[in-house]
Each structure stands twice: as structure tokens, then as C-alpha cells.
Design goal:
By secondary structure, the protein is an alpha/beta fold. The protein has helices at 15-21, 45-52, 66-78, 95-104, 108-111, 123-138, 143-154, 167-172, 176-182, 208-223, 243-252, 265-271; strands at 3-8, 24-26, 29-32, 35-38, 60-62, 82-87, 114-118, 157-162, 189-195, 198-205, 228-235, 258-262, 276-283. It has twelve helices and 13 strands. Helix 3 (66-78) packs across helix 4 (95-104) and helix 6 packs antiparallel against helix 7 (143-154). The two termini are 27 Å apart. The mean pLDDT is 89.
């Protein structure tokens, strides 16, 4: 009996890494009017952001149905394996709720073989938890052990990003408090930190160069003297702008590996293009 890893598309690593680690992705729905696409799988982030530039009405998102999760869970259980499903924070999406509902539809003994975990973050930060769970599963760890470790790590998992504009996030209403605090900063780059299911505005930068420095300072503050660090760089159709992060990180931490994780369409619907940032886990062991 093995443990299989499932995640929503907001918690996914790159498609290449997901395939390598055997991660099953359940996509968020992207709505362009009456057209519905599957986040990450049905429409690539690049194509999405190109389309976002020309539409008159912003796209919306919706959580996968409980039936979609149930189908994935059943396939795994039928193969004799257990399942851990990681979702983006329930504070910003109904995805966690629908995955839990799917779990509850199974008989008690089967439901016990499924764990649905709220990562309390999103994007690149959540993807690191998904990857860590998948690596533990490949090592042969059991379901309870993997779930316990992810529960320990998620409190020390953080997403720090620079928004190129607040126009999209204000219209979405997803993080109204953040937008209200930073609402008059359209000529600067607002910086957002997301941890423990809570988004906070933590600074403003006069341009991208300063934003990169401030984000890295936040990382260095958290990572100081921590023996366990995982890191990923993310961008919303701004691949050329993430190189400063990678260069700076390799200069100071030559041994660290930094995955590049797309800022998927489900998040970009609310944040817009041009977002750059990092996700990371910092832990004592």
C-alpha cells in the first residue's frame, strides 16, 4: 500500500515536476464569460495572461466539484493506495470544503484512508508542501506520518510577492483588507505576504529592483539559522523578471535549489499579470 498525493492546481508545482513525482492535480475552474477552462491543465498560464490583456470583463474562478475530487479519491483507493489531498487555504476558496465533502461521501473505513489538508497558503508556497509530501510518499512513509509532517511545516510556510498593480485584486474582492490598506499605492509596487491563511500588506517598493531586495530581506529574516529550507520562485507571465531572485539566492545560498512555479490562472484572475515573488518553508528540522 502506497500513499498517493493529490492537490488543487493552486498548490501544484510545475507540470513536469508533478508528473515526475506522481502528483494528481485537480484544477480550479476559470470562467471567461460562458467559456470554462481548467486551470493549469486546460489553459496555460502564458495563454491566460495574454488573453487577460484583451478581455473587457475579468474572468472568475470556481472550485472543483466534490464529484471531481471523489472520482480521483476513488481511483486511488480502488488501486489499494491511501491518499493525501492538499488544497489552498480555505480562507480564499471553497476548494478545501469541496474536497472534504468528497471525503465524507466515502464509508468510514475508506474515508480514513484519505486526508484533506488545508495548506494555509497558496501558489509557490503551497507547491513546496505538495512536493515535500510527494517525496515522503516516494520514500515509503505512511499516511499519518506524511500528514503530521505537513501539519508541522505549514505554519512555517510563506508566500511573498510583488503585485504589479492592485487593479485586479481590488475588483476581485478576494483580499479586500489588503487592497484597502494599500489602495492608494498605484504608482509603487505593493508587497504582500501570505502565511497561516492570512494575507498582509507589508511594504511598498519604488520599482522592481527594490521589491526584489525587500522580498529577499523577508526571506533572510525567516531563514536565518534554519536547517530546513525549501524555496520556489513564481511569476505571472514575467519569466524574465525572476532571474534577479535566482541570481541573488544562488550568490548567498549556493547550495539551495529554487523551483520555478507558475502563478497560475486561478490566482492571476485576482492578481493580474506581472506578479513576481517567492514561496518558502523554513523549519528547525
Amino acid at each position: 500500500m502506497a500513499v498517493r498525493i493529490v492537490c488543487d492546481s493552486v498548490c501544484a508545482p510545475s507540470l513536469e515536476k508533478a508528473e515526475k513525482l506522481g502528483i494528481t492535480i485537480v484544477p480550479i475552474n476559470i470562467h471567461f464569460g460562458k467559456e470554462v477552462y481548467k486551470d493549469l491543465l486546460g489553459i496555460s498560464p502564458k495563454d491566460f495572461y495574454e488573453r487577460l490583456k484583451i478581455v473587457k470583463e475579468l474572468p472568475t474562478t470556481s472550485a472543483p466539484s466534490p464529484e471531481r475530487f471523489k472520482k480521483v479519491f476513488k481511483e486511488i483507493l480502488d488501486q489499494g493506495d491511501d491518499c493525501i489531498c492538499l488544497t489552498m487555504t480555505g480562507k480564499l476558496s471553497l476548494t478545501h470544503q469541496t474536497a472534504k465533502k468528497a471525503q465524507a461521501d466515502f464509508k468510514k473505513e475508506d474515508a480514513a484512508r484519505i486526508r484533506v489538508v488545508d495548506t494555509m497558503v497558496a501558489g509557490a508556497a503551497a507547491s513546496l508542501l505538495t512536493v515535500h509530501a510527494a517525496e515522503m510518499a516516494q520514500e515509503g512513509r505512511i499516511l499519518s506520518e506524511i500528514a503530521q509532517k505537513i501539519d508541522e511545516l505549514r505554519s512555517n510556510t510563506k508566500l511573498v510577492v510583488m503585485f504589479d498593480t492592485l487593479t485586479y485584486i481590488e475588483k476581485s474582492g478576494k483580499v479586500g483588507k489588503v487592497a484597502a490598506v494599500a489602495g492608494n499605492l498605484f504608482r509603487v509596487k505593493p508587497l504582500i505576504v501570505f502565511q497561516k491563511s492570512k494575507p498582509d500588506f507589508f511594504g511598498r517598493a519604488r520599482g522592481q529592483k527594490q521589491a526584489v531586495r525587500m522580498i529577499l530581506e523577508e526571506f533572510e529574516k525567516d531563514a536565518a539559522d534554519k536547517p530546513f529550507i525549501r524555496l520556489a520562485v513564481t511569476h505571472a507571465n514575467a519569466r524574465e523578471n525572476v532571474q534577479p531572485f535566482i541570481d541573488a539566492l544562488k550568490e548567498k545560498h549556493p547550495g539551495i535549489e529554487a523551483d520555478i512555479v507558475p502563478f497560475t490562472s486561478a490566482m492571476g484572475s485576482h492578481a493580474g499579470p506581472g506578479v513576481i515573488g517567492i514561496g518558502y518553508i523554513f523549519h528547525d528540522e
